[in-house]
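User: Hello! I'm new to structural biology and keep hearing that structure can be predicted from sequence alone. Could you demonstrate with Pyridoxal phosphate-dependent aminotransferase? Please show me the input and the output so I can see what each looks like.

Assistant: Of course. The first part below is the input, the amino acid sequence of Pyridoxal phosphate-dependent aminotransferase. The second part is the output, the predicted structure written as tokens.
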Amino acid sequence: MCPVELDGNSLTRFSRRSFLRYSAAASVAASIPIITEAHLAHAQRRRVAKNIPADAVRIDANENPLGPCSGACASISSLIPEGGRYDYDLTLKLVSTFSDMEGLKPEYVMPYAGSSEPLHYTVLAFTSKDKPYVTGDPGYEAGMYAAKLSGAKILQVPLTKDYAHDVKAMVAADPNAGVLYICNPNNPTGTITSHDDIAYAVANKPKGSVILIDEAYIHFSDATPSLDFVKADKDVIVLRTFSKLYGMAGVRCGLAIGRPDLLAKLQFYGMNSLPIMAVAAATTSLQDKDLIAQRKKINADIRQNTFEWLTANNYKFTPSQSNCFMLDTGRQGKEVLAAMQQKNVYIGRVWPSWPTYVRITVGTHTDMDKFRTAYKEVMASSTAGLEPMPLPERLRDTPHTHLS
């Protein structure tokens, strides 16, 4: 993270009240469990198996099996001897590289160790017991954990019949909402919310609220990015990560992009320096002009091949543009998940509002071949736990629940 320069005058201006407020926030931040996709996937795995075999097919955590690009690996390797030193210049280079590419001022970009930290910090900064957290359902759950810590009411708004965020319902969910969270493409469905819909949310949101747009999976899709709202100085924070298309989930680097006054509120919850290897790898990845197109095509080809097989076998799924999708098993999703693990194939978790669906990560060609074999065997099973499950009445006509 960019260093904060404090000279004598700055220290004088840093009043006792500010110090106490920062110290209190820092104390809270130190006790905040940052929930990531890795935690959620690992918790699901541990419910069935204590040890994951080395040869297991792991398509449960939206990881990129390609890993970092060759240039990023070289950057990491070259910096290992320098691992004993801090290097803020590398962080500044990452910020300037990204801001130059996107036509942003550097002060609108703040780097973190992945995008989970700024996701949590944004929720903590802008929600409270009087300012609810509004999210899509099914949607990525990490923000809800942060909202619980802030004491905020959590409002889950069902996706539309087209699997997009119902932005009109989200805007109307509570006039005092603090954060409206839009993951685009959505995790777990992999589906898109249009730029026009997001523009509606930005223009009609509750006064004083922030639109938090998580673009972790944006590079896999044809979705229009939302950085234009940041450039227009709207109450918007956009999250980007190097964990997905860039294959750096285990390296940890991400960005929060927003107006400086919004980003400043996040800093009260954490201002740690970043690992120099992660920062250098992220910068090198950005500088690889062909990387996004190449990896987007690889993922799209494998995803399309999988969708064709699912369609041929009459299996229903969400029309994803991401590296994950939701698959309707027509049965108890948790039982299907457990049965797949018995075949050494680890698939994603179940969302309570869609009990028959499981999330599938797009893996390698080999991963998906093994998935298809295992899934067909599981679906042919006649064991009691895998009997077809009738949908609740409210889910029979549409793939989503209703806001209660």
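User: So the tokens describe the shape?

Assistant: Right, they're a compact way of writing down the 3D structure. Reading them back into a model, for example: The radius of gyration is 21 Å.
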